[in-house]
Write a structure and sequence with these properties.
CATH topology of the largest domain in chain A: Rossmann fold
Structural class of chain B: mainly alpha
Number of domains of chain B: 1
Structural class of chain A: alpha/beta
Largest sheet of chain A: 6 strands, mixed
Number of strands of chain B: 0
Distance between the termini of chain B: 25 Å
Number of strands of chain A: 14
Helix content of chain B: over 70%
Shape of chain B: globular
Order of helices and strands of chain B: HHHHHHHHHH
Distance between the termini of chain A: 35 Å
Largest interface: A-B, 33 and 26 residues
Order of helices and strands of chain A: EEEHEEHEHHHEHEHEEHEEEHEH
Oligomer: heterodimer
Shape of chain A: elongated
Strand order of the largest sheet of chain A: 6-7-8-3-9-10
Largest sheet of chain B: none
Number of domains of chain A: 2
């Protein structure tokens, strides 16, 4: 792949026969070697976008270049770079793990390479199941078989559409570890997920899609710095009726409850605040917090805010 | 051309056939034996020879065609419908395979199985009636072309069907009646003039006639008419499949 760009999507539109606009002019660049998380509510267009890139859905207009190859006019070269793990657990139930993974490699025109298949199965902890029929495997293992199939032809780009949907916490964390280890081998990974925690944990960059439009793409850390709110929460000993006017220069809000209530100082990452100064001021007005704690908004809160605003 | 991709589909499909080898062979062999017991021995012994061919021997080409047509359609339709049903079709569509390569893999495997079963039925028939094949190469041509053509038709049905009921609809309501009325068990020359003309509209007549000619040098229509008809039918199926892949009908949204 050239110039550090794995995938370049330009003005991609998909309007289904019933008139539903699944993608409305998506522009996106995926960098080589990164983990890119595509977030969006149900029906936002995540799967349609992946399917349009992989050749399963016909785009209405726009272009997709994979490793510099157009995914329609140069589909053979473009598709051979991509491995896809779809959201649904679609497997050939009566096939053995070994046969189904070997079959996938053959589809991509690669010569049989038992050593590579062995390596993939071992890496995904499936080696001892290689002769088992897929129908006898657990859901988590089936998901790993699908990853093994996608990796069988040594792709440079891997699409993971909801890789941990319906998977328990333990398995999800093991899947995360496997995704990270894949990235270490140089594979570019694009994942869609409902679990924002997953994106927060793994992604280098985040894209948020809603109603077929890409609302933003941003480096995860930058996004959290830009959009993330921080709060310093002062738990009060005694009820406070109003915030003293002298403290008006601070972005303080009062939250009342059955106990003493809370004073909340809200600021963003770029605002400098001297907490000891705030504390001194509170003390001088007779306000003595019994506890102090801080809160930083998660990617999930940022996501909800963005999607709701749009 | 992605030869390995074609071979992967072909081998995978043949593997599925081999897994169910017992039922794949037992069913057509049993039907053939039953037909020979009923039509060959019980009824056939009381029937006159047709064009000098004993009735038991006369029905052999028709019986083979009956099995081959049914097997070709069901193998190919199931072969492509099953991955659509389970969702594993995503892998075929996202692989660097052209549509021609996909068809070669699926239809090639379905046709191979049909030819194998056709040969098995032929060998089974040898136990019941003395057989003489006058033109083995023409016999092979008709057997292979019929298997390919009806596998193409099965592929179309497998793409068109959106449920297992539809998958059975065309074979039950169209293929079976056409085969039975296509001269499998009789010569259409035995029919009254009106029904003879109606029968000429049945494409299976030409297949059975050409196939029977390769055995006994006697058919209901001329050899070249049979050849032309089967090639026309193949072409028609290819045109429909070409349209399916051009539009993505049944495969791509």
């Amino acid at each position: 792949m050239q110039n550090g760009t794995a995938i370049e999507i330009k003005a991609l539109k998909k309007i289904y026969e019933n008139g539903f606009k699944a993608l409305n002019g998506v522009n996106l660049e995926i960098r080589r070697g990164e983990i890119f998380a595509l977030l969006g509510p149900n029906g936002a267009g995540k799967t349609t976008l992946i399917n349009a890139v992989c050749g399963i859905v016909r785009p209405s207009s726009g272009t997709v270049a994979i490793g510099g190859y157009d995914n329609i006019s140069q589909y053979r070269k473009a598709r051979s770079l991509v491995g896809l793990v779809p959201q649904e657990l679609s497997t050939d139930s009566f096939e053995t793990v070994w046969n189904t993974v070997t079959f996938s490699r053959g589809l991509f025109g690669k010569a049989n390479n038992p050593r590579h298949i062995e390596d993939v199965l071992k890496r995904l902890s499936l080696w001892d199941k290689k002769d088992e029929q897929i129908r006898h495997l657990s859901g988590g293992m089936k998901r790993r078989v699908m990853v093994a199939k996608a990796l069988s032809h040594e792709p440079e780009i891997l699409f993971l559409d909801e890789p941990t949907a319906g998977v328990d916490v333990e398995l999800r964390k093991s899947m995360w570890a496997q995704v990270r280890s894949l990235r270490e081998t140089g594979i570019t990974i694009i994942l869609t997920t409902h679990y924002i925690e997953e994106a927060q944990e793994m992604a280098d960059r985040v894209g948020i899609i809603n109603k077929g439009e890409l609302i933003l793409t941003e480096d995860k850390k930058t996004l959290m710095q830009k959009m993330g709110k921080r709060q310093m929460i002062f738990v009060l000993r005694e009820q406070l009726t109003t915030i003293p006017s002298e403290l008006g220069s601070y972005p303080l809000t009062l939250e009342k409850d059955d106990n003493g209530g809370k004073l909340i100082l809200t600021y963003d990452a770029e605002t400098e605040n001297d907490i000891s100064d705030v504390l001194d001021n509170l003390k001088s007005h007779g306000i003595r917090p019994k506890d102090i704690y801080s809160h930083q908004s998660s990617l999930e809160e940022i996501f909800i805010e963005l999607v709701e605003v749009k | 051309m992605n030869i390995r991709g074609i071979l992967a589909i072909y081998t995978f499909e043949m593997g599925r056939t081999l897994r169910t080898l017992g039922q794949s062979i037992a069913s057509p062999v049993l039907s053939t034996v039953l037909y020979f017991i009923v039509f060959g021995s019980a009824i056939g012994s009381r029937m006159q020879a047709i064009n000098g061919i004993p009735y038991g021997a006369f029905i052999v080409p028709g019986l083979i065609m009956l099995t081959v047509l049914g097997q070709s359609v069901s193998n190919a339709s199931f072969g492509i419908y099953f991955p659509r049903f389970t969702g594993t079709i995503y892998e075929i569509l996202s692989a660097p395979l052209s549509f021609v390569e996909i068809v070669l893999g699926y239809v090639g495997a379905a046709a191979t199985k049909s030819v194998m079963i056709g040969v098995i039925v032929l060998l089974t028939a040898c136990f019941f009636v003395p057989l003489h094949i006058a033109h083995p190469l023409w016999m092979a041509f008709f057997l292979i072309m019929t298997s390919i053509t009806f596998s193409l038709l099965g592929f179309i049905i497998g793409i068109w069907a959106d449920g297992f009921e539809k998958l059975q609809l065309i074979p039950l309501l169209v293929i079976t009646p056409l085969t039975f009325l296509g001269g499998s068990f009789y010569s259409i020359n035995m029919l009254p003039p009106f029904w003879y003309k109606v029968s000429l509209a049945n494409p299976v007549v030409y297949l059975v006639s050409g196939f029977r000619w390769s055995f006994y040098e006697h058919g209901d229509v001329s050899l070249m008419t049979s050849v032309t008809m089967i090639l026309t039918f193949t072409l028609a199926c290819l045109i429909i499949i070409g349209w399916i892949f051009k539009t993505g009908y049944g495969l791509k949204k």
